[in-house]
Amino acid sequence: MTRSIVRRTLELDAADPARFRVTDGRVRLLVVKSEIFNDDCRNGDGVIRPRFFTDRPDGPTPTGEARDPYDRSQGVREADRGCGTASRT
Q1: C-alpha 9: how far from its chain's center?
Q2: How far apart, in whole angstroms, are the C-alpha atoms of residue 51 and residue 59?
């Protein structure tokens, strides 16, 4: 079985209504990070295109390091780290 794995983190902030003018029930989005593993590395188009070993490569070749997408001891990296490969799927 081959999968595309997506890891995301969102950092949110709930402002103190005693100090700021806020809307009840709303939070502020501070940071969004995401990593996609086993993708064909087309950055920025918002579509996940799985890369399967049986398919002929039609996208860019991965240039980054191989990482284990299930290793949660490392945080989600910034998107500008290159396009790596998943060490396991």
Answers
A1: 8
A2: 9
